Amino acid sequence: PDGSVRACPDGRSSLAAYPVLWCARRPTVVGSERGRRAPFVAGAVPVAAVEAAITDPGGFHEAECAVDGDPDTEWLGQAAQPGRLVVTLQDATPLAALAFKTGPRAAGLTFRMLGVEGREVGRLRIPPGGEWGLERFGLPPGQPVKSLEALWPASREAPRLFHLELRARGGR
Fold first, then answer.
1. I need a labelling partner for 27 at 20 to 30 A (CA). Which of 48, 69, 74, 120 fits?
2. At residue 28, does pLDDT exceed 60?
C-alpha cells in the first residue's frame, strides 16, 4: 500500500488533508467456545457483532465472512434486493480510515458511521466501479463510531463484501 488517501467520491476534497499511514497487519481471528469464528477484528479494531438484513440462502456467505480476516471469503446478499450489513464495534472508536474489498460493483455503496446513541456521525459514498483489491479511504476527524452500516441499493448484482478493515485514530 502506498498510504495515499483518495478524495471523497462525492466530490468533497476535504479527505485529502488527512494522510493515512495504513496498517498492513492482517486481522487475527480467535475461535470462541461456541465454535464460531468470533470475536472478530476489522483491521486492528475489535468487532462485537456483524449482521446482515438479507444473506444469500446458499450458505457459506454469512455476515461474519466480511470481517473474518480472510479477504477471499465473502458475505453475499441477494440480487435485486437492497443490501445492508451492520458491523458493531466493541467500543466506540474514532476512525481514521477504512478499507474494503467488494470486487466490481454495478451499483454504488454507502458506509454510514453511527455513534453510541445510533445517530449518524459520518457517511462515505462509494461510486459504482470497484476493483478486486482493497479500496482505501481516509476519514476526516469526527465523533467516535459504535457501528458501521454498509448499504447497497437494489441492483441486478447481489451485494457482496469480502473484507473490511478499520483504522482507529491514534494508531489502533
1. 120
2. no
